Amino acid sequence: MLMQFFSLKTRIILGEGSLSYIKSVAKKHSRVLIFSSKSMRVHGFLNEAMNYVEDAEAEVEAIIGVPAEPSYEYVESIMPKIREFQPDLIIALGGGSVIDVAKAVKVFYDAPELKFEEVAFISRFEKPKPIPKLKTPLIAIPSTSGAGSEVSAASVLKKGDIKYNLVSFEIAPEFAILDPRLPRTMPKEVARNSGLDVLVHGIEAYTTTAATPFSDAVAIKAIKLVYKWLPLSVQRDEKARENVHYAATMAGIAFLNARLGLCHSLSHKAAWIAPHGLLNAIFLPYVMEFNMRSEYARKRYAEIARELGFNTAQELVEVIKEFNEMLGVPKLSELVSEDEFLSKLDEMSEKAYHDPLINFNPVEPSAEEIKELYKRAFYGE
Ligand SMILES: [Fe+2]
Fold first, then answer.
1. How many angstroms is it from 324 CA to the middle of ligand 1?
2. Are residues 120 and 235 both part of a single domain?
3. Final residue in a domain of this structure, among 139, 159, 178
4. Are 126 and 274 contained in the same domain?
5. In the chain, how many domains are there?
6. Which of 21, 68, 235, 286 is most buried, most CB within 10 Å of its CB?
7. Which stretches within the chain are classed as H helix?
8. Based on the domain organization, do 15 and 161 belong to the same domain?
9. Which strands, in side-by-side order, build the sheet including 31-36?
């Protein structure tokens, strides 16, 4: 028997001005905590959000400016303030890091007895303790179009130098508000890098071993939208920004269910080199060529190719390379020196080999093959 699942916990609210939905939710609550990026404050959206909460006659407090790569130490440092305020609703207004922090805060606020190391994990060879039922609802309002954190069940946090994952449907947001006014504030580079991440989410989710016809449907739609609209979105076209924003959440729904693969394992462990989406875009063609030893992966890539108006898996690889070139994606060797790259290669390869997402890749690579892939990407072979 083969039994598969597809779930979406999050209610999605979308459209121009949909930020005002905050008021409808806040009406049922009395103390609302908002995490906001500095950029959302500067562009006036934090103020607007706080006004909706006040209109709903709830008390509001804001924590502004979350570190770019948030750590558990940071979460711990803000917990006393949060426990004192005692929110009964949490709102995250910003990029993936802001949403990830809010998710982690929800865990340790609702279940203070939990120890970080018991519930967080780094390797596919260990099994963390499950996160218990949590009560404080979370509204995620993404200002960038990429990470999919507004629907996903994961939060990535550093402790020391190590990146851990918290994964549970308990931390998937109750609501995701997709107001296209917010991503229109993204600088061009952020729009490009996060949009490239969406493309990789779609392609990887479509080709994992956990893909279902349901995750396929959203993955394909996301891929088609990004392929068509990302170049215009980078040029600040308003309609394009909106379409890529929705595509990001669709791809998030796809990978929440179908998970991701080797490309993300490689980019996660190379995060010290460049932004996440950019690394994914660089690694993707190499990972696809590697995965093509699997008949399943070849068939799936060819299906994507046909959806985009091409024919074969190999053609799709070429299309991806051209897309990267058109968007000005640099070579890996332009982002890091050979000496530095080689000095960290063994460590990166070993860590990537342990990455939990390898379990869903259509081909299981050896640690040696992972190292080869990193090298090919660096030397552009
Ligand atoms: Fe990603």
1. 16
2. no
3. 178
4. no
5. 2
6. 286
7. 21-26, 38-42, 45-55, 72-85, 96-110, 116-119, 188-207, 213-234, 238-258, 262-269, 276-291, 295-307, 313-326, 338-354, 367-379
8. yes
9. 11-14, 175-178, 138-142, 89-94, 31-36, 59-64
Pick from 327, 307, 284, 306: which is nearest to 224 by CA? 307
* CATH number (domain holding residue 239): 1.20.1090.10
Q: How far is the CA of 67 from the centre of ligand 1 (A)?
A: 18
Quick one: DSSP state of residue 174? S
Structural domain including 40 reads 11-178
Residue 42 alpha carbon to ligand 1 centre in Å: 26
Residue ending a domain, among 178, 208, 234, is 178
In this structure, the answer to whether residues 247 and 329 fall within a common structural domain is yes
pTM over cut 0.85: yes
**Cα of 87 from ligand 1 centre, angstroms:** 30
